[in-house]
Amino acid sequence: MAAEPRELTAYLKEDEIDLLQDKLDIAIKRLASKTSFRGRQERQWEITDIPERAELEARAQEVVKIAKTGVRIAPFVESRPLVPLFKAAKIDLPSIVRIDHEQMRYNFYCVESTFSILLAQDQFPLVAELDMLLIDDAKSAARSTRPLRLFPDRKDKHFFTADIEGEIGIDAQMAIAVPEMNIELPSLLQTHAKLAANTQLKANFVVGPLTFPFRRAAIEVVGESDQQIFWRYNLQSELTGVNLFKSVLILKVPQEVHSVRIEATLSVVPCSHRWVFFRDVLPKLSDTKLLVVELAST
Q1: Element containing residue 84 per DSSP (H, E)
Q2: Dihedral over Cα of 184, 186, 187, 191: its sign
């Protein structure tokens, strides 16, 4: 079952605004000398013409304005109990999972966490971050809820080389599997071979395929088997409008636990072509929400 989405606004506090203004003033003084940035390559933009000081100050105030008013972010969490899904599909639980479920009294959930960054059409994120803290009502720290699997994980970085809509799923080993994605395949024979392999992989999904928005980004992941989980996307391409990011977790939840929540801190560094001169000092806007993971009734 799905929890209701709740929008939040990521912005800077008043003291942080003052610090941002100081940084922008220093950047304007440096740029006004017209020496530091001339001819510099900034990702896909080559900076050759630096505006006059008055124009730089106007653009800096645009940065301050968005830092004050904030960026809207819509988080959404959906959970599915996995043991009933395996039983419904008439697939035996993996041995370790079965022992954990029957002898150690754990349940397992697939949790999709999605957040949409709602930016103006001329703006795009340079960085997007999701910091999760799992909170439950377990009486013992040794039996706290924790992620058994997560996606993306550190080993999954190679998937994030293009901006495409892909698919993932949970297989019979209760692992997260990803069909192979190649944007440029060298031959028709290899194309058919990969399509056949992907078709077989998807046929073995117990859950899925689930759509997943892959973003061309250098990603950082921390926290497998820990209650604190962190993803950072350093975007390598320009995405405008609504920017969707998703994380998928397989949670191991003690059966005596009745409440699991996620304290989610969502952050974005917004940018515009007009602000590219200030790229090194653009603010990271953050806000935190407590999201409920719906558990199956026992």
Answers
A1: helix 82-88
A2: negative
The answer to whether residue 35 scores a pLDDT higher than 70 is no
Contact present, 127 and 268 (Cβ < 8 Å): yes
Confidence of residue 169 (pLDDT cuts 50, 70, 90): very high
CB 278 within 8 A of CB 63: yes
Whole-number mean pLDDT of the chain? 86
Pairwise CA distance, residues 145 & 256, whole Å = 11
Which residues lie closer than 8 Å to 40 by C-beta, 6 or more apart?
46, 47
> Token pair of 43, please?
């990702």
Alpha-carbon dihedral sign for residues 199, 202, 232, 73: positive
SS3 5: coil
pTM: 0.83
| Single-letter amino acid, residue 215 | R
Structure tokens given for 63: 């940065």
Instruction: Check if the beta carbon of residue 279 is closer than 8 Å to that of residue 236.
Output: no
